[in-house]
Amino acid sequence: MGFNFKGAGLGLVEDFLVKVVEVLDRVVKDYSSVESILLSGGVDTSVLACMFRRYFNFHALVVGFGKDFPDLKYAKLVAKKLGLPFHVKIFNVKEALKAAEQVVKILKTFDPVEVRNDIPIYVGMKHLKKLGFNSVVTGDGGDELFAGYTFLFKFKPSKIDNWIKNIVKHWFFASKIFGESLGLKVYQPFMDKRMVKLALKIPAKYKVVEKDGIIYGKWILREAFKNFLPSEVVWRPKNPIEMGSGSIRLADVFHVNQKEFSDLSKIVRLKSMEQAYYLKLYLKNVGEIPKPKIGEKQCPNCGAGIRKNSNFCRICGTYLV
Length: 321
Known about the structure:
Helix content: 40-55%
CATH architecture of the largest domain: 3-Layer(aba) Sandwich
Number of strands: 9
Largest sheet: 3 strands, parallel
Strand content: 5-15%
Oligomer: single chain
Radius of gyration: 20 Å
Shape: globular
CATH class of the largest domain: Alpha Beta
Number of domains: 2
CATH superfamily of the largest domain: HUPs
CATH topology of the largest domain: Rossmann fold
Strand order of the largest sheet: 1-2-3
Structural class: mainly alpha
Distance between the termini: 48 Å
Order of helices and strands: HEHEHEHHEHHHEHEEHHHHHEE
């Protein structure tokens, strides 16, 4: 598979297109022991699958809650295009309940969005381990480096650049911790210092771009791989993990009774029955909410400590205004 952008008529951006592929190429070569990839069929994991397939043989796994989840269609397209052995893990409510307890216990959080997004990742990694794999590739960092989140689209390019510079100093992904708990080596190519260094040099105007009346994040990645991946995948709109995997539906599954909600609400100002359920798991498996340490500020919602330069509580998911 060759990548050639000369004569593409892209002007100044051509150099960045070449460098994205060149740096990714150097990075993936370092992971010769890769055995599997969590393939959502989104831009990030599809790009990585494309690059790894140039050198290595590995398996792909897509994970979803229930039989009808968006990621399945796109992951199938990528696996077929690249000739990857393809696995599907569909988890049910019982498995989700067990996974939720482990996610809360391992991450020490009852943030509904965090738990809901991480349940499919944990289920997927556990399944890969069961299948006998010892390593997995994730797309962690792609959205952060290349402005994939839709909330960034309303910002000016300079603000997007500053957001990216700040986020890479403090970013956190659960996959590494899950891997350690399961005995699975986790590879995160986008978080490699070489990729971070390059991404910080690429202006936001080449990351958030309007095309045919639609605003796309990660434009530079999409453009670099548009001839090597299915078009439906390359120009697929951003879907959070909870949407693509269908785990968003767990919000209607996890709940406590009214008395429990009332009692738990005396500890934390709860946003939902779902959050109350996660708080119940937290108190059972983790214990009391930690008080601020020296140099930290206090979360106004749950009372936990927050770094002074942060406006987000990782324990309960509250954003400070």
